[in-house]
Every structure is written in C-alpha cells, then in structure tokens.
Amino acid sequence: MNARRILLPALLAAALLIAVGPARGQPSPPVGAPQPATHVATSLSSAAVAAAPSKPVAIQRTTAKGTNRMAVTSPQIRASSAIPARHTAYGDNVSPALAWSAVDGARSYVLVLEDPDAPSAQPFVHWVAWNIPANVHALPEGLPTRASPTAVRGMVQGRNDRDGTGYFGPRPPAGDAPHRYHFQLFALDRMLDLPLGATRNDVVAAMAGHVLAEGELVATSQAPKTH
Which fold has domain 54-221? Predict the structure, then answer.
C-alpha cells in the first residue's frame, strides 16, 4: 500500500512533464529535433515583417543591355534628401525639373516615379512617361498633367495610381516614416507603341529587352506635422 502511495504521485508528475514540456531553465532539445508547431506560428514577429524587403520598383524589374549607369539629377531635389513641399501633393504638386546623361544609341527615354513604401501591393506610381525623344536629356519644372505636354514634343505621359495623367506628387500617409521616391530613367533602343492611358506595368512590359541603360535619383518625403 505504501509503495502505491509513493508510485502514483511520481507517475502523475512524469505525465505532466511530458504534456507541458521542460520547465524554464531546462536545456533545449538537441539541434535538429522536431519543434512544437506553436513555435512556427509565433516566430513571425512584427519586427520580422517590418524588416521584409520593400516592393521592387521598375529599375529592379528590368535588365539593361549595357553596364553604364545614367546620372539622374534635379536642381530642386538632392539625392537621399527631403523633396521640397512645392513638389509634393501636400504643397503645389508641381513636377520637378529633371536631367540625365545621354546614352549612345538611344532612340527614346522612359521616366517612372514610384514609392515602394506605400501601403499597396505594388509600388505606388506617381509619374510615368515614354517616348521622350533621344535628343532630350532634361525636363522642365511644372509639366502640365496631360498626355502630350507641348513643352516636350513626342513625350507621352501615362496613368498614375491616383487615376490621373502625368505627375502626382508625394503624399505619404500622416504618421508614416519618410517614404522613398525613385525617379527612374531608362534609355531604350526603340520607341514604344502604347495607347494613351497606359500604365507603369504596360510600359515595363513593353520595354523589356530594349533597355540600353538606366539610372535613378532617390529622395524622400513625409507628411507635414499639421496634416
């Protein structure tokens, strides 16, 4: 009888230990040993999600035939610096002036402006234009938001993700950390035959295999404190 009184609590303790796993401070299972399914579910922390790579912009979705990079500059915007309010949708929403280095053999240039930090499935498109003539290596400030601006004959502006034509300035949500804006230029060995209202995805698909060189200017923008 005494043996049964001693043995029964011991068996109950062993069963409890097997059910809940080792107590704190006990050594972990050997490397390679199966882990409980709950460990997999809890491993996706918010920090891991925040550290995930941003969505690829157009320049990361294309491959240039040459190795030379185009230099892209703006008299109003400095690389890795804040875009002036005048050129954001919180301000005057005026497109900045841009300039880029000429590429030998280019027959046209393409421009794409994207925000990969926007809360959307793909980078938010702020500006897309194609068939910029080969002899044009700069755009003036304040281009009209219509398909064919007279300031640059031959150039066609497509649809942005605001469902408009031409330039739509940065407007990141209030409270967000600064978003990155990629002003991307592509030199092509051809003109693009695209309809009015074509989108970024249409342009990227059409220029595949025809990119001679590419370059970008990356700057940032954040919502004003008053918004």
Answer: Phosphatidylethanolamine-binding Protein (3.90.280)
